[in-house]
Amino acid sequence: MDRVDKPQNVTSKGSAADLVTDTDRASEEACLSVLTSAFPNHSLLGEEGGALGAVGSDYLWCVDPLDGTTNFAHGYPSFAVSVAVLRHALPVAACVVEFVGGPGVWGTRTFKAVRNGGAFCNGERMRVSGTKTLDKSLLVTGFGYEHDEAWAANMELFKHFTDVTQGVRRLGAAAVDLCHVGLGITEAYWEYRLKPWDMAAGVLVVEEAGGTVTTLDGLAFSVFDRSVLATNGYVHGAILEKTEPATEKLLEDGVDLSPWFIPEGYGVRSGAQLDA
Hints:
This protein folds into two domains: 10-125, Fructose-1,6-Bisphosphatase, subunit A, domain 1 (Fructose-1,6-Bisphosphatase, Chain A, domain 1, 2-Layer Sandwich); 134-252, D-Maltodextrin-Binding Protein, domain 2. The protein contains six helices and 15 strands. It has helices spanning 22-38, 69-74, 149-164, 174-183, 196-208, 236-252, and strands at residues 10-12, 19-21, 43-46, 50-53, 59-67, 79-87, 90-100, 107-114, 118-121, 124-125, 139-141, 168-169, 188-192, 212-214, 227-231. Strands 4-3-5-6-7-8-9-10 form an eight-stranded mixed beta sheet. The chain has a five-stranded mixed beta sheet with strand order 12-11-13-15-14, with helices on both faces. Mg(2+) binds at residues 47, 64, 66-67, 198.
């Protein structure tokens, strides 16, 4: 909170839109210092610093120190700090601190979830939306920095769902998008080529709020997968009718949507379609 509405030292990580600030790094250092002190025998994975910590652990902390950096750099909501811990490939606890409001009036709301323990926003129990049809739904999606085949396929999905729903939003922060599905203010979120730190906390929030999470071709999901569809459950099948063939076409064309790399030595032995 001390860093909002102040000048930022902004640099690029590869493309003009893929930004990093001093605040990203400071936030990650703050998160990791707490986690390494409290859980010295766990593995850690941060967006800025990569994999570190104990080798061979059953637990992996996924830290996105500033999800939505471009929004943050421009003073535009939404952005968040996202932290979750996996046991093997399954998120078991999560916290997302979303920054809401805008310049001069910033505040936060905190999402928390525990496996089989529910999801909460500022201490209040969360439930997904009860909307049952796409024509009454508000959806949200995201686009990666690489304008490749998956980006183009998602642009077509964006066009389609804009026509058959009450709208599709693109906020630019996956953790926030997922938490909004869990909060019941949107009915679904989908995206290609995310990283574990983008999704780990948010997918647990959705699941514990009563939602459904799969890959975009309808397979069981793990945070190492490269596509995600999170919904209130009611509209899941209707969305898959379009995302499943689009994703299968990408795979047929040789587009790589294989699981993202698993940190060396991390004890993945279960979780969705990942093999033991």
